[in-house]
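[Meeting: bench + compute handoff]

Bench side (C.D.) handed over the final construct sequence. Compute side (W.E.) agreed to return the predicted structure before the next meeting so the bench team could plan truncations. Sequence as handed over:
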Amino acid sequence: MATKQSQFDILPARRSAADLFFSSSLYRGTLKGRIPKRLLFCPVDVIAGDAEKADHLFHGNYLLEGLDARLGGEEPWLAKKMPLYWHLELHKFGWMKDFAANGSDSAKRHARALVTNWIQRFDDYHPHIWDGDILSRRLLNWMQQSDFLLTSNDGDFNYKFIRSIRRQLQHLKRYVKYFAKKEDKFLFYLALYVGSACFKDSQGDAAKFKNNLLEELDKTILADGCHISRNPSQHMATLLDLVNLRESFRKQDKTIPEALIRAIDRLAPAVRFFQHGDGKLALFNGGMAEEDGMPDQILALSEAMGRPPLHLPKGGFERLRTGRATIIMETGQGGRPQGAKYHGAGAFEFSHGRDRIVVNCGSHPDTKSPWAKALGATAAHSTLSYEELNADFPAPKIAENTEDPDITVLEDGGNIWLDFVNHGYEKSANLGHTRRLYLDSHGTSLRGEDMVSVLGNSNKSHQFTLRFHLHPDLSLSRAMSGRQLLMMTPEGTGWQFISSLSELTLEESIYCSQPGESRKSQQIVLRGQIHGTDELSVKWAFHQMGTKETD
């Protein structure tokens, strides 16, 4: 038998008052209870695993969050050189479905051995590993793969597996009731509902947690369908959870709650809103581009029809679409709570067909790392920035009226104009900023104008920067004049960038659209300077070469 391994030997130490209480022998004794012999049903996971990945896992190669740990026969939880975020992904057990996709007896034996080993080492409370979001996702993954893991001829494994589920559920109940402080508790209630519904003796709890879950949906998914995180990847992940829940109701021949159907119908168009022409997602607020084809697969499974909206007024985004061109812009309309980690006020992404042209820099899976902080800064977004300051979003709005005088969108003959007043630097730097975008009806010409002014009386000189982060797949060349940039996309389409300033510069940038990805790229940088109460207008344009520019 494996020796009990303290998480402090592998993971960063954490000894909060709650950790000490949950780790006590007194608390461990309260997690004991009756152990049923079976689950009433196996919750549905509509996305199958990858049998090829199971082969890598079988040989001890764990590719998680973009980092590949080659462990051979070593127990994966004992990998000493991997960062915390890799370990947390490991302890969620999302990779278990890959063994199920393989389906062989050897895959089942190996998967069961890993679960048994985890229970031997971590079935009592461990900081990080038993945190609410990690534990909730682990419970869901275990229960969704229970048909694969449980057998009729191994009562010892079945008992230990179900006992561990019940212990973790009991802890999660208390955690949510007394300790959970997250604004988004959807995942907690989802795990509690599914876990209670799976056992005959907890049907009363299941009814209660179902109500909690459905109430939480109205808090988590705003009226326009935007997720409160404003993270496109979180939109997709939550939609998948809701589709799995709906299919679990169908599997049991239970009535699907109307609130669940409405939530899917609100959320699915918002996922489409954030899709570029390549089908992947825009990079805002910690989101990733996601695996090729995955957003479309989940949207098809959602069974929610309809085109993406053009406005998410509660979430604070605008979408412009003409021809093959797509622009997604973050306005912050509706406001944001304090403590936001991403500061992309006025930032936009621009794609044409499957080619991404203007992007944001992306995110990092370690949300507390210097990398994550840098990628969340205003300077890592395609918008205006001032010195080293981050732009502020407005405070949340209480009124239900979604009309906003700071945002105007007009359409005429297929051409689209967007005017946006950016308040991001008014308090911190006394700078006013208005961004105007024009997209022609063919999607071949994007023009912009950024007007920057000093608010109030000031004799100070202000230097600001306009950044346009470019996708690393673009081939770039500068014109002799220094005011033009030529770009060639992977599809062979040429684009020209011009500006009203006497000079533009190309500087290094970074592109992180997937976990583990860190691609060198470049950014167009326009610098302007205003004195006193002056106002400066900077005009710029992306124009597809070989097409006639429209008025």
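W.E. noted at the follow-up: The first strand starts at residue 61 and ends at 64. C.D. will use this when planning the next construct.
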